[in-house]
Each structure stands twice: as C-alpha cells, then as structure tokens.
Amino acid sequence: GDTVAFVDQNERRISYVLADGTVGAQYNFPRFDDGTRVQVHARMADGRVLGSLRTPPQQPTEANDAVFRRPFALVAFDGPARDSAAVRPRVDTIAVLPGAEEYTGYAVESGEEYLLVEVYRLGRSTHIGTNGDRLFVGTNERQEISEYGVAGLKRLIRTNAPPRPITDSVKQYFRDGFAALTRASGAPQSFSDEYIENLNRWRIADEFEYHGALRVGSDGTLWVEEPWILPDEPRRYVVHDTSGRAIARAELPPRVTPLGWSATDVLGVWKDALDIPHVMLWRLRERQ
C-alpha cells in the first residue's frame, strides 16, 4: 500500500514509515548466537512478521556428488519495539521446509581452487508467496502448493505440472546467457574470466522445477510462475482464484520484473534497449 518498510539487519529492527513520513510501528526480529540467519519476507495481516531462519552451512571437507536440501524454518514473530534492546520477539514456527538443492564442489578465486557448497543450478527450491493475508508454500517435492492459515495447513492446491527435462542444449543456452551477461557487465577482464571459469564448473539439474516463484495478488489470486532460464525471458503464470481453482494462464512481455498482481492488471518494471527501467501497469486481456 502506502507504507514503506525499512529492514535494519545490524539492529535487527523493522521500521514502518507511513505516507506522511512519520515512523509507525517498529518490530524487532531475533538475533541468534550460533550464526543462524534471519530473512524477513512480509508483514502479515495479523500484525506479525513472516520470516525464515537458516542455520549457517558447515564448511565442507571433501567434494560430494550427492545433491541435498538443507532444511530451514518458516516462522512468524511479533513484539513492537519500544526499546529495541529490551524486547525479545516471540517466534512461532509455521513449518520446517527443504531449502534449495545444493552440492559440494570446487571454485576458483584469485587463481586458487577451494571447496564450497554450491547451488544446483535450475534445481528445485522452496518458494513462498504472501500478500499478508494469504500464505502459500511450494517445496517442489511434489506437484502441490500448500496454503497456511492462522491454525496451520489450510489447503493443498494441485499444480498439474508434469516433469520437464533440461536438455544439453538448454544447459548450454543457460551457460552462454550468463557468460554474455558477465562480459557485458563492465567488470574487469580478470573477474569476468574467473567468473566464467566457475560458471563452466556449475552443475545444472536434469529436470525443471514443477513451479517457480509464488506471487499473491492484492485480490487474493495466486500466480504460480513457470521456471525461467535467463532474467530477460517473458514470465509465464498459471493464475488461481481465491478458492484455489486454476482460472487462466498469463504471459508478460520480455524484460519485465513484475511487482504487483491482480486478476485485472500487473504492475512491474520494464527495461528498454538502453537498460533504462520504466514502471508500468499492464491490463490483462484475453489472447486473440
């Protein structure tokens, strides 16, 4: 709406600035001594803040071909901060979920090879979508999207998305596309060369996710994004009404990053040929 949220990771504080420029509510979010990382997602309609907690990864000691998904906790926390140092927010766990697919491998930095945990490119991950009132989670372990309410799991939505293979030509398209973006970025040649060397080491999944990002419209519609390969590609969605029923497919123009959704229009940023961003509103219409 007309409220801006500022997230201060150092102070573990969220401040809401109202339309007239005054600061409204302030919230703490938790600090952990073991290095657990807190990511803030949204403010919920009941006043709590939606976030996720991830423990720090262990430094690998050897390469391993196995692909794994480390779990993380989806949580809600509350506690308006009168004195940010004195208030410890209550944390309620909504669900424990699998993270993105990862593996251990080698990368190069400053000419030295070292071992690290890498993301399995185009692999499965968990997507979270909310408009504050409705909360959806898709883990890509099966073709289901879960809707959560205040009392817990509320509904399962079937996405009817058959597995799609990622062919060798698609993998090469993916590598070539990111290599081109790196060369065009203006970064120093030594950095680009090293990045592309690491890019060629990336492991790429053999199957696409069932679904990509989950977006929730201001009217409660659920927009299930199809997986895409490169950032400038058109975004495609299956749109579900408030009962979970699929009602439409939607496709946006290329080079559009969508920001807001409803059953009638989409707000987003479009980049022109000079990479100048334009904030635009698109009206949805039936394809002729």
| Share of helix, binned | under 10%
Q: Ranges with pLDDT <50 over ≥5 residues?
A: none
Q: Which strands sit side by side, in order, in the main sheet?
A: 4-5-6-7-8
How far apart lie the N and C ends? Answer: 33 Å
Mean pLDDT: 88
Let me know the largest β-sheet. 5 strands, antiparallel
Q: What is the tally of beta strands? A: 19
Q: How much of the polypeptide forms β-strand, as a percent range? A: 35-45%
Number of distinct helices: 2
Which series of helices and strands comes N to C?
Answer: EEEEEEEEEEEEHHEEEEEEE
Backbone CA Rg: 21 Å
Shape: globular
By secondary-structure content and strand pairing, the structural class works out as: mainly beta
Question: How would you explain this protein's 3D organization?
Answer:
The strands form five sheets. This protein has a five-stranded antiparallel beta sheet, with helices on one face. Strands 9-10-11-12 form a four-stranded antiparallel beta sheet, with no helix packed on it. The protein has helices spanning 168-183, 189-199; strands at 4-8, 13-17, 23-28, 37-43, 49-54, 64-77, 91-109, 112-119, 127-130, 135-138, 144-149, 152-158, 214-216, 222-225, 236-240, 246-251, 256-261, 265-271, 277-283. It is built from two helices and 19 strands. Helix content is 9%, strand content 45%. With 288 residues, it is mainly β.
